[in-house]
Amino acid sequence: MSNSSLAILIIAFVLGFYLTAIYNRLVTLKNRYQNAFAQIENQLKRRYDLIPNLVETAKAYLNHERETLESVVSARNSAAQALTHAQQNPGAAGQMSSLGGAESKLAEALGRFNLVVEAYPELKANDTMAQLSEELSSTENKVAFARQAFNDAVTEYNAYRERFPQILVAASLGHSASAELLEFADSAAIQQPPKVSF
User: Do 194 and 112 form a contact (C-beta atoms < 8 A)?
Assistant: First the structure.
């Protein structure tokens, strides 16, 4: 074997090792943000499960507020559907935008619901309503933390993927697009836990 053949073989080996290291790091970072999304999914599903109980408890007191109750249920169903689509490909731009928009609409509907509930002292005093509201508030905090962890993981993935020399080979290694952050339209307001006073 000649020196030039040996040099080519060594260069090919080093290049192959380097590409393998880039690929493995991309896979690790992608798995990390997908796992972080699974945590968001768990908390959002918990919230979606709490909302019908909250609405059902309020129905007895809010007979003439049916439009408010229906808007909460409708927004909850839209958000649940957006979550189902998003979990098929966490980080995909369209799905993250749809989920963020649906979550923002749900937050608005819950805000209107909370304003209506304020006008009904008997409902505010209801133990079941107070317990459900507390669980919902706690879940909102968990959603915020899980969303932050997801966005941190996506940022780390994107930063690594977009650096040189990874950007040159990422697409050919199956990582053609940056992942999308999960942002809500009211991202400033979402940082604060919902104000529920019973």
Answer: no
